[in-house]
């Protein structure tokens, strides 16, 4: 019954009056956000995360979301990988970055919040395990799929979030995301991350302005070499003979 309630409530967070999600639904979901590793409750745990993400994403709950996004992010990061599947974790991080990026109301009050979330990912990646994670019993999958590692999931979550970043932040995070791919030790998972990075750049997930920035980064700022080979071979800025570039200013 609880699972049915949470799965249903997720779809009504956007239409309820502000008090209903923040009081009723949050109370119901919070009861399952701190379960102590009981595998029998994993479906309830993930359903509760979905409810919280719906509440935080609703425009009428922006003030509530601003006050809760920090504590929810802490809960999410502590739950992974023991209590949260790779799929759920990637989805949650992507949604948090989208919720905290323009044109959301939250981004007007905390413009650095989306980039801060990715910094948490990047810092955690330094000590992430490369061991394969056990397959989640709540997520159906092909038995031939490559087992994911904590390391790979963190990198994929970072890549998934790129289309929602403001332009200035995207310009900073493109090389960091490409660099992070080469920290994945398993060759098959590193290849998977490269494929996902290319998909994000080329399959329409970026809007026109972000796509133009990505094209410039890929072609003239060393993006291709950084992604494929892990090195920065940016094409030098064309200058007239005898000209001084910005780094040569007195």
What is the element layout, followed by pairings?
Elements: H1 2-9, H2 19-30, H3 42-57, H4 62-79, H5 86-99, H6 105-109, H7 113-125, H8 150-161, H9 167-181, H10 187-202, H11 208-220, H12 223-229
What does this entry show, briefly?
The protein is mostly helical and 250 residues long. It has twelve helices and no strands. α1 packs parallel to α3 and α3 (42-57) runs parallel beside α5 (86-99).
Provide a descriptive summary of the structure in words.
The protein is 60% helix and 0% strand. The chain contains 12 helices and no strands. Helix 7 (113-125) runs antiparallel to helix 8 and helix 9 (167-181) packs across helix 11. It has helices spanning 2-9, 19-30, 42-57, 62-79, 86-99, 105-109, 113-125, 150-161, 167-181, 187-202, 208-220, 223-229. The model has no long low-confidence stretch (mean pLDDT 84).
According to DSSP, the number of beta strands is: 0
Major sheet description: none
Output mean pLDDT: 84
Global shape: globular
Elements, N to C (H/E): HHHHHHHHHHHH
Distance N terminus to C terminus? 71 Å
Strand portion: under 5%
* Total DSSP helices: 12
- Uncertain spans: none
Q: Nearest-angstrom radius of gyration?
A: 20 Å
Q: Helix content range of the residues, please? A: 55-70%
């Amino acid at each position: 019954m609880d699972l049915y309630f949470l799965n249903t409530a997720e779809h009504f967070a956007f239409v309820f009056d502000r008090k209903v999600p923040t009081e009723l639904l949050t109370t119901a979901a919070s009861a399952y956000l701190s379960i102590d590793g009981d595998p029998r409750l994993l479906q309830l745990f993930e359903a509760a995360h979905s409810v919280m993400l719906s509440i935080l994403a609703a425009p009428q709950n922006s003030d509530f979301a601003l006050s809760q996004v920090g504590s929810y992010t802490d809960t999410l990061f502590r739950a992974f990988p023991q209590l949260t599947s790779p799929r759920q974790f990637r989805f949650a991080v992507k949604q948090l970055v989208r919720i905290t990026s323009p044109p959301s109301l939250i981004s007007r009050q905390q413009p650095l919040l989306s980039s801060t979330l990715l910094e948490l990912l990047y810092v955690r990646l330094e000590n992430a395990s490369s061991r394969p994670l056990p397959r989640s019993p709540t997520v159906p999958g092909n038995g031939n799929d490559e087992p994911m590692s904590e390391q790979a999931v963190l990198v994929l979550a970072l890549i998934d979030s790129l289309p929602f970043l403001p332009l200035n932040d995207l310009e900073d995070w493109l090389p960091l995301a490409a660099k992070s791919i080469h920290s994945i030790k398993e060759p098959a998972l590193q290849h998977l991350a490269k494929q996902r990075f290319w998909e994000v750049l080329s399959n329409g997930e970026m809007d026109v302005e972000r796509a133009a920035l990505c094209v410039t980064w890929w072609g003239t700022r060393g993006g291709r070499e950084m992604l494929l080979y892990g090195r920065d071979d940016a094409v030098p800025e064309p200058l007239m003979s005898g000209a001084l570039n910005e780094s040569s200013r007195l």
